[in-house]
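Z., the sequence and structure:
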Amino acid sequence: MQTRCQRKRFMGPVLFAALLIAGQQAAYGQFNKYRSQTRFNPDKKESVESATPDVDTMSAEDAAAALKAAEKLEADAEATEDAEKDSGDSEETSNESAFAGDSDDDANEETFGSRPAPKQKAQPAKSNKYVNLNPETAFGPEIVESFDFPDTDIMEITRHMQKLTGINLILDKDVKGKVSIIAPTPITVGDAWKAYLAALNMAGYSLIKTGAFYKVINARDIRYTPTKIYTGNYTPDTENYLMRVISLKHVSAAEIARNFRPFMSRYGRLIDIKQTNTIIIADTGSNINRLAKMVKFLDVSGHEEGLQIVKVKNSSAQEIAKLLDNILKGGSGGAAGRPGSATPRFTGAAGGGETSQSSISRIIAEPRTNSIIAMANAEGAKQLRDLIQKLDVKLVSSSSNRVHVYYLN
């Protein structure tokens, strides 16, 4: 009986100690969860542990009070967790990160002191190995101090330009020849590039772009090599071979092609397309610009011929056609007066002497409508109408051909 009572007395404190330890573990778990917000100091741990009552020396009233305190602490912890779940995950995350950052910074500052921020090393400036150049338009604003190549092989100049601009080259094994480039004053990279293309042209070569590379080919083979085509008003002013398509509005493409061929370079070509009244020029960029200026000056309205029909009112169309043929051709008659006959092409003003821009290529007399049909430009049509108006007048019979009637009484 005594042993059973001793066991009861021994089990009471053990059970109370187990409950107290479980309450302390829950309290420490909750405390560790908010450790960053409360700025936990490990130096105070000893004081907390020293303040923990001894289980062997604790009375029954103190044990009951400690158990109630542990239960209350656990209930408060559960209420706090429910409130935090209702507030939302975004707010909890932002608050915890803010508190943690502030507490960590303050703790580090208290432990190690304030430290200066590390200085960032200055990055070295990147130097461009090649100059800025647009090989197509020859635009390069940078300055080249020296560009003298007296009696230099064309391959040496090509290698120098490759080192200067960084272009990718494909060279023919037959590329050779010597040229001289003399530049006593500083020039731009664009001017140096134009000088290099001119030196290639003088040596009989041309530079053609193929993908990311430039080929140096013989200029006599340029017609078999595809070059860049320009259809607008712009053509690069360089010595490189290009192709330009020009549409004509008022003059004949065949006429322009026939008269412009003497102005082409040695390996240039000029083709006319009659269906669209267009010319295709394959030549250097500088020569194409020169020909385009000439075309712009010549392709103006007023020179093209059109069909003109003039009605004859008071005379015979055949007789008027004969007179026009004699006047405009200087008296060479012929078959112009017959129906359907035509005069050959002629230009100039009536009466000889001064030349004008008038052009009348054909004059046909049409007897059924008593009209004159002609092919003439604007000036020629005006001249033709003025002559017909002066010739088409009413005929007045002479007095000898009149019949007089006299009545006798």
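The two ends are 202 Å apart (CA to CA). The mean pLDDT is 75.

Let me know what you think.
H.
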